[in-house]
Amino acid sequence: MDKEFTTDNCSVVPDYDQNECCIEHDWAYWKGGTFQERRDADSKFLECVKETRSGFLAPLRWLGVRVGGIGLFPTSFRWGYGWKWPTTKAPNDDRSPVSEESQRETLQAELVEARKKDQRRRERS
Predict the structure, then answer these.
(1) Cβ neighbours, 10 Å, residue 22
(2) For the segment 12-48, what is each residue's pLDDT rounded down to a tens digit?
(3) Residue 67: CB partners within 8 Å, gap ≥ 6?
(4) Where do the structural domains in the chain lie, given as residue ranges?
(5) Alpha-carbon gap, residue 46 to 116, rounded angstroms
(6) Using CA atoms, how far apart are residues 121 and 18, in angstroms rounded to an integer?
(7) Taking the CA atoms of the chain, what radius of gyration do you get in angstroms?
(8) pLDDT for 61-117, tens place per residue?
(9) Rounded to whole angstroms, how far apart are CA atoms 65 and 35?
(10) Can you tell me the distance from the alpha carbon of 125 to that of 116, in angstroms, rounded to the nearest whole number?
(11) Closest of 17, 13, 49, 21 to residue 119, by C-alpha
């Protein structure tokens, strides 16, 4: 990757109790890949959101990531945002300065916090 992993949880929409779903989805979007991998990531996100207390939002969330996450624009939430735009996946001669393995610790820390936050929201409901 060209950039370290970052997450904004659920981007510009309220996260309700879906932070973990959003962070896992951000991880997939950071890595990027093929069109099929993007479809798979979005489908996994849809299923994850359906399992939350606010799962009724799943179709809207899915539509938002399908439309908003295309890699055509240099946004911080596009497919393959870990690569310099317009790249959306590892080049054949990948010599990137940031590895997926080096970023797993960041991912795990974000997920721990997300689980706590999601649990607190569920307990309040």
Answers:
(1) 25
(2) 788 788 999 999 999 999 999 999 999 999 999 999 9
(3) none
(4) 19-124
(5) 21
(6) 10
(7) 14
(8) 999 999 999 988 899 999 999 999 999 998 877 888 898 999 999 999 999 999 999
(9) 13
(10) 15
(11) 17
